[in-house]
Amino acid sequence: MENIKINYNKLKENFEQTKSKQFLKNSINFLGICDASTFELCDKSWNEITLKSSINIPDSYDPIDQIDSINSSVEITESKVIATPSIPRQEPYIKNFENKLTTGRKLIVSGCVHLSINYVSIYKDKNVQGFAVKIPFSNFIVLPKNLLLDDETIDPMNVEFLPSACVEDINIGELEAKNLKFTINVILTACHSKCIKSTNINRFKKCKSKSIPEIYGLCSKTILNNLLVYDLNSMKYWNQISLSKICTLPMDKPDIIQILSVNSKIKVINQKVIDTPKSDIPNLNNLSLTGKKLIINGLLIQNINYISKTDSQEVISSDIIIPLSSYIMLPKDYPCYNKFNLCLCLEDINLCALNNRQIFSSATIFLKAKL
Questions:
Q1: 167, pLDDT greater than 90
Q2: Is the separation of the CB atoms in 344 and 367 below 8 Å?
Q3: Which candidate in 171, 257, 290, 333 could, as Cys together with 307 as Cys, close a disulfide (CB 3.0–4.6 Å)?
Q4: Which residue from 154, 56, 26, 96 is spatially nearest to 326, judged by alpha carbons?
Q5: Residue 24, pLDDT score
Q6: pLDDT for residue 230
């Protein structure tokens, strides 16, 4: 009986703490959240992304008792149009079993969510303090195969796009004295500027490095063009994802001055077919569930060469390993024991030194399963 009473008291204490935290979250003043009545989407060229992040409060600041306000804004630092798998026919797109589309063109959008956080100190004087952080992101918007500008059909590769973004919501996951975990929902959109650009410039403005690193390991143009063309029997067996992570250099590696190059490859660890819920009717996002998925687990392995912050400015090599887990929707009657030949194609890599010790790495990946 005594043990039961102790357990009950612990449960009650945890419940009260949870209620208290929820009350504190509800009292936060969130500024800079998207005004749905004024933020305009550009036709069908938009995407929604979710960012999960954890912030350690700087050592020079007091621990947090209560957050007073969070002011958010989004800065776009880079955008570029890339080629993706498609088929050289008149069809404007190809659908997979989930009803996702590939048109042969994507707009890669990179940037940062800036947060200015004001809070009350945990100490008796209840001092109000504030600090600023930025959370990098990179994702994509699927573009139409062709654009009609002034009665002329134009390839999106030859058009300038003007991306914009805003924060839809911020959710505080955990609030501790020196750590803050949260989720940010961001919407991206991009309008074409109705003018043809002379060169496809890759704008890279806000990285610590002054130059763009050399990128190796991307799928060749031949592979991109032929990935779906010569596999008509399993043309719908694909998916496309964006994978990103903030990576910290190992302790035994010196600080970064400038990233010179990155060589990337994907290693598949395992695959398996699983049963899932199924629906005969698509959801409001027009996505379908067939009842079968191919789960793919692997690693994105990147070898970074950079100029180090040493007396001799030695060129140092370091590896970044990012776990990858995704899926491809399968036909509803597909047997669970079959194995696939997998092609995980790196469409694009973005790499940026955030500071002397941290690197933001993002990859756009096209996953294809062949029978």
A1: yes
A2: yes
A3: 257
A4: 96
A5: 56
A6: 67
CB 51 within 8 A of CB 186: yes
pLDDT recorded at residue 87: 78
- Span between the terminal Cα atoms of the chain, in Å: 61
Write the burial class of residue 7 (CB in 10 Å: 0-12 exposed, 13-18 middle, 19+ buried).
Answer: exposed
The answer to whether 191 and 162 are in contact (CB under 8 A) is yes
Q: Is the confidence at residue 22, as pLDDT, over 60?
A: no
Q: How many contiguous H segments (helices) and E segments (strands) does the chain have?
A: 2, 18
State the DSSP string of 42-78: -TT-EEEEEEEEEEEPPTTSPPEEEEEEEEEEEEEEE
Domain boundaries, the chain: 29-206, 207-371
| Bridge partners of residue 352, in order along the sequence | 360
Q: Which residues of 214-229 are buried (b: 16+ CB within 10 A; e: fewer)?
A: eeebbbeeeebbebbe
H/E run at residue 149 = strand 147-149
Instruction: Name every residue whose Cβ is closer than 8 Å to that of residue 6 and which is 6 or more positions away in sequence.
Output: none
- How does residue 175 score in pLDDT terms, banded at 50, 70 and 90? confident
